[in-house]
Amino acid sequence: MRRHLLSIDDLSRDDIERILGRAESFAEVSGREIKKVPTLRGRTVINLFYEASTRTSSSFELAAKRLSADLVSVKSSGSSVDKGESLKDTVQTLSAYDPAAIVIRSPHAGAAALVARWTRASVINAGDGKHEHPTQALLDVYTLARRVGSLAGLRVWIVGDVMHSRVARSGILAFSRMGCEVTVCGPPTLIPRGIESLGCRVRTTLDELPEADVVYALRMQHERMDGSFVPSLREYAAQYQIDGRRLRPNQLLMHPGPVNRGVELAAEVIDSPQALIVEQVESGVVVRMAVLYELLAGHGAPSGVRAQPATEPQPA
Amino acid sequence: MRRHLLSIDDLSRDDIERILGRAESFAEVSGREIKKVPTLRGRTVINLFYEASTRTSSSFELAAKRLSADLVSVKSSGSSVDKGESLKDTVQTLSAYDPAAIVIRSPHAGAAALVARWTRASVINAGDGKHEHPTQALLDVYTLARRVGSLAGLRVWIVGDVMHSRVARSGILAFSRMGCEVTVCGPPTLIPRGIESLGCRVRTTLDELPEADVVYALRMQHERMDGSFVPSLREYAAQYQIDGRRLRPNQLLMHPGPVNRGVELAAEVIDSPQALIVEQVESGVVVRMAVLYELLAGHGAPSGVRAQPATEPQPA
Amino acid sequence: MRRHLLSIDDLSRDDIERILGRAESFAEVSGREIKKVPTLRGRTVINLFYEASTRTSSSFELAAKRLSADLVSVKSSGSSVDKGESLKDTVQTLSAYDPAAIVIRSPHAGAAALVARWTRASVINAGDGKHEHPTQALLDVYTLARRVGSLAGLRVWIVGDVMHSRVARSGILAFSRMGCEVTVCGPPTLIPRGIESLGCRVRTTLDELPEADVVYALRMQHERMDGSFVPSLREYAAQYQIDGRRLRPNQLLMHPGPVNRGVELAAEVIDSPQALIVEQVESGVVVRMAVLYELLAGHGAPSGVRAQPATEPQPA
What we know:
Three copies of one chain form a homotrimer.
Chain A: H1 13-30, E1 44-49, H2 55-66, E2 70-75, H3 84-95, E3 101-106, H4 111-118, E4 122-128, H5 134-148, E5 155-159, H6 166-177, E6 181-185, E7 200-203, E8 214-217, H7 233-240, E9 252-254, H8 267-270, H9 277-296
Helix pairs in contact in A: 1-5, 1-9, 2-9, 3-4, 5-6, 5-9
């Protein structure tokens, strides 16, 4: 495994399975009253968030703390500091503290890869624009595997605004790497051209949805609901909302949260036993603990150091 | 004692006295150089604050840290996330981290009780709209008892904007449960109808104030000072301000802070030896340590579990 | 050494050298995988920041955590709470938690000294308006001493907006106390009258810059770039920017960060081996650990207690 987690594409199937196994062992820790191990004691993890995020940032924060790391949280509403130049300066400043890891969330695709070029710390992409959100995909795979066992041959439909979704992009890569057959489905205006090259089929109606084993609904972003991409919200829901009529009893339902109730999902399916939505959140902490562990303390870490351009600092 | 602390009404006099005794033992810890005990090591406490608060949130934060818990702080200015639906989603997300306790501050009366229905964690009401602020009342009782010993028969006057004060509401309940005779006093427009049913007398002038053993002045909220509830601030101060002339030498003075100097209190009484205001703040940390202890680690915790509707999750 | 660190003027050369020695020992700790010592376990450090600051606040946060203190961070954008009266109330509230130290950053000169009058905690000035920023000067001295050994007789030029710079003021004091010959240089409109009394020479052109051993460039504040103090940014850069032509190979370059690339520094000098800018940031954590150590745990702490007016609380 490499030194950073920037994209699901960096991970082999073996890498993913090692992370899942590690997460499983941390799930055992999280079930104890003392949910803490000393693994990263005295090491520093920096949360650098240029977008508001309760879910992902608190999940990484808890993961770091349950590994006994010291966490420093740097948040920005992005007004003045999210430009390339400033990001570099911020990262170089924070790197001077010799952190073990920097967890970066940015509105700009590619930001995490840039950060990785500027620091000796391990960099974890916690979402970079519309590009990727690899820990989300890992926790999705973990959650699903916990429910069904092997993922090989499972048919996964990812439904909604695929165009703007880093969750979709990382999900396609992760599910297909684990042997699933992935289909993306949404209005033609919200399916990016060439998405098939990631290893998925494209559908623009839910007609074939009954074939799916897993329905993964994407969050509709509020700023996309105003008619520039979909004729109307009502129209969108009429054609693509997953409701009790469309979701078959043998299908599982996933969603990255937070859910827009009544938009991409109808209320009746959210709380149904088929929904894995709460389990996905629960998985967040243990999978992020596993990622931190594998990058910072795992056996593969020293030998799997990612090649760096010669002009840049090398890990000690 | 129940699983949550939502209202003083949930507490028997025995419950309150057990909390005070526990706070006393934590006061001994807080006097040490190492102000820390390992009681809640590896357990998670979430501060969920939908209103700005330096005092209460930092007090709970320190209480949790001095019990060695891991604290996660989620703050919101309330613009987008304080609606019922979103609160539920947020609480369900945070609950997936399996926190031992959620401390909730909300501008909406009843918010803490809602949170308690959505989580397996112990919920502590850190102020819900105009409803209650039970840990404030507990620290008030603790502070007073430390100074005078038994509270039985003490005459407590709560003076000011009773209408909008969660502090008044929790205070009336707590002081009367401890055997005090409580009087509320303020302009008729700022006394809610039927307040007597909580177990207090009502006065609209300070004429009988000399009978009080304790004068508890409430903070005048800035947004209420503009004339819709009181004719003018000068007029209010003329009739209800506690100053050196009105406060007798044998009376004690309390205030929840922060004080509006020159409004509800005159400068000369704030720093007098009769004032317990600084002691109230000091008590905040140890009383909140005691509440966390009783809910999460106390002997009464398992047996006193609050009954939950059958459809909701039960504590393990 | 006194109980507070408010100004470099409070420190003797011996004090500074003791801090540098202590920082050196913490640099050894920071080089370990477990970057943590138990020195301040169970003690509380409060970061009270009335100005936005990533660099200084995260540096103090890490310093406190690596000493095992509990850190509470109180931040304010300054809109409502930076007036004298409110600052006093805030400090008295926070002091009730019996913190070992309060680290204060304020836009108002003299704020740290006021805080020191209101609390029994040790107060560390993390920047008060245009007045001082003593930990910056200490880390500058530390960084330079690490590179060159003794500072005696070194010629240090501080270049730029001296008028508005607390870094310049603390730097002049610290470098001259260590035996340097300090020159300040900038446009006449940005040199305060009487600055020589701090122990420096004044120049308004870079003509004699070649004599300098160290060039310390100040950050040009964006709000000063609009023409009220300098005719134009281009004009400023033409006359005062440190670039590859002006910086001689035997000169060292320092800057407090963050750098305005292309304004006070040209890109080619920022990343040159002569620049100590990254080392300055690195030094921040260990020097702040050393300051916390000396004030809170050093042998000199009890005897060197700063005299307080008789009406104010005394340390236990």
